[in-house]
Design goal:
single chain, 317 residues, globular, binds arginine, binds manganese (II) ion
Length: 317
């Protein structure tokens, strides 16, 4: 059925298909302890072996070391919390993701909080300036330093990547690589007033849970891809915040919001993006094993692993 071209994992990833795991034990983009332990749990649950089992060559040489970057001497800039630390960590992540991408590997970044996407997406766009982003999340993470209430930078990475809002010199390395028509959201249901304004003003396409209910996930993913990738020829960066899933599915996360994606809806998104053959990078973010009981942690980590497997080609049949 499939020609050799179609059966390739991705027209952008050469054989042997190689995934490079970038473990990012980092929590500085928000204030709850534990999200820095997410990547360790995902790896300990056997994610590298699971991906090898799917036929991937798996590169993983330990989690990112951030110890040279300290939280000391990092007072807020305006409302931004831990600004220097977040900036330095994301810059390091951008470099690593960029290097993997340039070698033709598929970087899989395990968070850690979602501020890291400032780094991962910057890295992806170094190799693929024509890429698009599918952002799966309960939140838009598009606050600017001007609109943020919390000051948590995990609620802001998209605005930095778009180059909107007051410029913060510490983040000068972040280039406005992302155009408003190259990002699409799925799963939104907790969007701040300032963020709603930004989405409107910039004409950014978003499929909230309302649209998922109305059209069904199949149609929503199709419309989302038609928007950012109409000819299915652009590289796709998938940034998946596990809080997009309903808290009954992924309870161990820092900012859960009820009314989220079902287990299958989350996996369907990943499976469909894989099927495009355009996937070049994946983030799985905001798994926090310190939140909720041991069973919930196990469940959340297992869901994180299975989302990644779906994005990297696991099928039901
Ligand atoms: N990556 C996340 N979980 N982000 C939650 C952001 C929540 C809120 N909008 C804020 O800016 O603080
Ligand atoms: Mn979120
Ligand atoms: Mn997020």
């Amino acid at each position: 059925m499939a020609t050799s071209e179609e059966s390739r994992v991705s027209r952008f990833i050469p054989d042997p298909k190689t995934v490079a795991i970038v473990g990012c034990p980092f929590s500085g983009g928000q204030t709850k302890a534990g999200v820095d332990k997410g990547p360790i749990h995902l790896v300990d649950a056997g994610l590298p072996e699971q991906l090898a089992h799917l036929g991937w060559k798996v590169l993983f040489d330990g989690h990112h070391q951030f110890e040279e970057i300290s939280a000391a001497n990092d007072p807020p800039i305006g409302k931004l919390k831990n600004p220097r630390m977040v900036s330095k960590v994301c810059q390091a992540v951008a470099k690593q993701v960029g290097e993997h991408a340039k070698r033709g590997e598929l970087p899989l970044t395990l968070g850690g909080d979602h501020s890291l996407a400032m780094g991962t997406i910057s890295g992806t766009f170094e190799k693929y300036p024509d890429a698009c982003v599918v952002w799966v999340d309960a939140h838009a993470d598009i606050n600017t330093p001007d609109t943020t209430d919390s000051g948590n930078i995990h609620g802001m990475p998209v605005s930095f990547l778009l180059g909107i809002g007051t410029k913060v010199p510490e983040f000068a390395w972040v280039k406005p690589v992302l155009k408003p028509n190259r990002i699409v959201y799925i799963g939104l249901r907790d969007v701040d007033a300032g963020e709603k304004r930004i989405l409107k003003e910039n004409g950014i396409k978003a499929f909230s849970m309302h649209e998922v209910d109305k059209y069904g996930i199949g149609k929503v993913v199709e419309m989302a891809l038609d928007h950012v990738n109409p000819n299915r020829d652009r590289p796709i960066h998938l940034s998946f915040d596990v809080d997009a899933l309903d808290p009954s599915v992924a309870p161990s996360t820092g900012t859960p919001v009820r009314g989220g994606l079902t287990f299958r809806e989350g996996h369907y998104i990943c499976e469909t993006i894989y099927e495009t053959g355009c996937l070049v990078a994946v983030d799985i973010m905001e798994v926090n094993p310190f939140l909720s009981d041991a069973d919930s942690v196990k469940q959340t980590v297992a869901v994180g692993c299975s989302l990644v497997r779906s994005a990297l080609g696991e099928t039901l049949l």
